[in-house]
Amino acid sequence: MKGEGLNSGILKNTKATDRVFVCGAGHQGLSMAAHLALCGVKVTLWNRTMKNIENVATNKKIYCEGIVAGVAEIEKASDHVGDVISDFVMVTTPSSAHRDVARELAPYVHKNMIIILNPGRTFGAIDFLRALQEFGAKELPHIAETQTIVYTCRKISSNSTMIFALKQDVEIAALRNSNINYIMDKMPNCLKPYFKKVNSVAITSFSNVGMVLHCSPVMMNIGWIETEKVDFKYYYDGISKSVANFLEKIDNERITVARSCGFEIESVANWMRRSYKVCGENLYECIRNNMSYREIDAPSTICCRYILEDVPNGLVPIEYLGKELGVDTLNISTIINLANSVLNKDFRKEGRQFSFEILKSYI
After folding, report:
1. Which domains are delineated in the chain?
2. What is the mean pLDDT of the chain?
3. Which of 142, 266, 325, 361 would bridge with 178, disulfide CB 3.0–4.6 Å?
4. What are the helix (H) ranges across the chain?
5. Closest Cα partner for 194 from 87, 118, 133, 288?
């Protein structure tokens, strides 16, 4: 199996870690820190802006509501990595911040450290490894990425969060020179049941559902998002039948590019049926039947991670590979072009562009 090369001899008697460093205190980071702490794991938390974690740093408490509820007590929160680093790192920042995180971690990494990108988005683990090398890491850790975020959640305030659901069978894979079995053996026991091992980061990367569910609905709801008097639910109000039909075209292009690289991946509708146990004949029905999506608000601005992260680190690498392999990605290109024009950016220049020849050395 790909991804089982490094340190295969240390699998015997490996125990789950009881200490986790959560890197990033946004929606997912705060939720993960609270969940782990409430399950008895020793948690440290880092955020690059102290203002956003000042209450947690002072009181060491995170208030959690929803399917995981309670007052979680963590060990420490800081904006200095050296104050809170440990050997099991859960990176929960948007992928647009991965290079900054790699720069912060590079002086501390070693060959037995585990770094998991939650999620990597498209080819995030490859990009992260190359960034660590660029920033002078003397040894390379085990690096894995997940297909998507484990938690359906929303940060309520700087020290409180709401967890609506924990997704089932979230795919996780390691780079070829890392060991997924070692990583999963070390995974905290409270998180292990929610992950499903797959044998290549190509699968987790091509299975990035965020690029399908995030970019197009924002671009198609610009007027409502930018109207201050209007608040609406992102999935329930923002994804109509016509929008969902367009998302399925984006999805089909993603699947076709993956197939051209030799990987079979599931549709977003099938992923939703598996992860959330919902029923539906098509993507629109699956979204409407997903109770966990009902309370998710639309972003308050189009300058959000649904665009700033998912266009360059989701759609762009798929379009790039499509062009190289002769796969038509008309609908993906349409959304990239629209985002470029509306936001006056060049997401193709900013985004991840790996040829298939380069990818093969990692996957």
Report:
1. 8-206 (3.40.50.720), 210-360 (1.10.1040.10)
2. 94
3. 142
4. 27-38, 54-59, 81-84, 98-105, 124-134, 180-186, 201-206, 210-213, 215-220, 222-225, 234-238, 241-260, 268-276, 283-288, 305-308, 316-325, 330-343, 347-350, 356-360
5. 118
In whole angstroms, what is the distance from residue 224 CA to residue 230 CA? 6
What are the angstrom distances between the C-alpha of 317 and each of 174, 240, 313, 348, 359? 19, 27, 7, 8, 11
Tell me if 310 sits within 8 A of 211, measured CB to CB: yes
| Predicted local confidence at residue 14, as pLDDT | 66
Residue identified by tokens 């992923």 is 271
Tokens of 306: 């649904």
* Bridge partners for 117 per DSSP: 91, 145
> How far apart, in whole angstroms, are the C-alpha atoms of residue 66 and residue 292?
11
Contact 149, 191 (CB under 8 A): no
